[in-house]
Write a structure and sequence with these properties.
The chain is mainly α. The protein has 13 helices and six strands. Helix 4 packs across helix 6, helix 6 packs across helix 8 and helix 12 crosses helix 13.
């Protein structure tokens, strides 16, 4: 028939079917695939020849030799080459997180999460979950969520706030690990990295991909649950204490924690909300599918223009993906608008800042604030430019391949 490059890589690939999805796991990278591709790879992994696989396709899918050949050329061979590249690079699964560094080793995470998993026992989960939601709602509705100005705190207070907030974020990641441990999965390391320009913590709980969706959702929400729990003693202390300085610091921590929870639930970034939405609606590779959805919908409508109800029925069928796509593009427009305003105001304020700095003495926090704004603006510009250059390189590479 024809040679099949990359077939040997299947020895390093784990095939998983959890009743809902067909998954490929290679060096920590996880892919969702179709039943057909899964079955083909299963046969190849069992050292069946291409001729045997082709006979199987003919018997079970009524594919003739030419159609089977086209399937291999269009799907199987590129997939094997991609898996071979991943195995060679050995990149972590969450490749959207850059400059990853381990903070807690897997052994430490497993020991601590094994102790904390009791918080996911049904009685404790219901009791503490209800109490935490109630207290956080009381605080949100009855007290101001306005953050105090950072420069109103002393250097020592600012350092203390940073340490407490970092511990809460670490507790959030431990929530994911504890939920995974409760379900029998082995959580791996907790680490630090950068998502776009922003520092993030992450917990490697990739083993849960083989679990049913509601168990995956439990792990996805474990971090938010632990953040809600962290606010319980903080809110109680806020209600009990009378010292204004202490209440101001507690208010800052509680409010920041609530805002981080809200941010984590945004589905348009690869946060907890993204994975919850993806798992709940069984939409693997959600971000890529949302990017391709308008093009695919337009193509489908054109191909079925004779059917007047096709467009509406197609949208109804893919309603969760349609809603996410609309929201995602609206979010992108909002971010672009916000960045444009940031760029405009930063340039304007920088001019005024330089004039003021040349004629008078300024406080350190004023220099720090302007330096931070300039660094954020330049960082976003650099990231956008790098991404566009990467996209152009991919297009050029695709053009070279197509022209051969």
């Amino acid at each position: 028939m024809y040679p099949l490059p990359g077939k040997h890589i299947l020895d390093a690939v784990k095939l998983i079917h959890n009743g809902e999805q067909y998954l490929l796991v290679c060096e920590g990278a996880i892919f969702s695939t179709s039943k057909l591709v899964y079955e083909i790879l299963s046969h190849l992994k069992e050292a069946h020849s291409i001729e045997v696989v082709s006979a199987y396709l003919k018997q079970n899918y009524q594919l003739n030799a030419e159609e089977a050949s086209q399937l291999f050329q269009a799907s199987i061979i590129p997939l094997l080459q991609k898996l071979e590249t991943i195995a060679g690079n050995q990149k972590p699964a969450a490749s959207y997180i850059y400059f990853r560094r381990t903070l807690l080793q897997a052994s430490t995470v497993q020991a601590v999460s094994g102790f904390l998993k009791v918080l996911f026992n049904t009685p404790w989960f219901i009791l503490l979950g209800s109490l935490s939601i109630l207290l956080n709602m009381i605080y949100a509705f009855h007290f101001s969520l306005t953050l105090a100005a950072v420069d109103s705190f002393s250097l020592q207070e600012s350092c203390f706030l940073c340490v407490i907030l970092l511990l809460i974020l670490l507790f959030h990641e431990m929530g994911h690990a504890a939920a995974a441990s409760k379900l029998g999965a082995a959580p791996k390391e907790i680490g630090f990295g950068f998502y776009f320009l922003f520092p993030v913590l992450f917990a490697d709980v990739s083993d849960i991909w083989s679990y049913p969706k509601y168990k995956r959702i439990l792990v996805n929400t474990g971090g938010i649950y632990f953040q809600l729990l962290a606010n319980i003693p903080l809110i109680l202390a806020f209600l009990y204490l009378e010292d204004d300085a202490s209440r101001r610091m507690l208010s800052y921590i509680i409010t920041t924690n609530l805002l981080v929870m809200f941010y984590s639930l945004l589905p348009f970034l690869r946060n907890d909300g993204y994975w919850i939405y993806s798992d709940f609606f069984n939409l693997p590779n959600l971000m890529n599918r949302a990017k391709e959805y308008p093009r695919n919908l337009y193509k489908s409508v054109r191909e079925h223009s004779a059917k007047s109800k096709y467009q509406a029925s197609s949208i109804t069928k893919d309603l969760p993906l349609f809603v996410f796509t609309i929201g995602n593009y609206a979010f992108i427009l909002f971010v672009l608008y916000a960045f444009w305003m940031l760029l405009f105001t930063t340039i304007s304020d920088l001019q005024a800042f330089l004039l003021k700095a040349s004629s008078s003495t300024m406080a350190f926090h004023e220099y720090a604030r302007m330096g931070f704004r300039v660094a954020i603006t330049l960082g976003i510009l650099i990231i956008v430019i790098r991404q566009k250059i990467g996209q152009l390189k991919k297009l050029y590479h695709s053009y070279l391949i197509a022209s051969k």
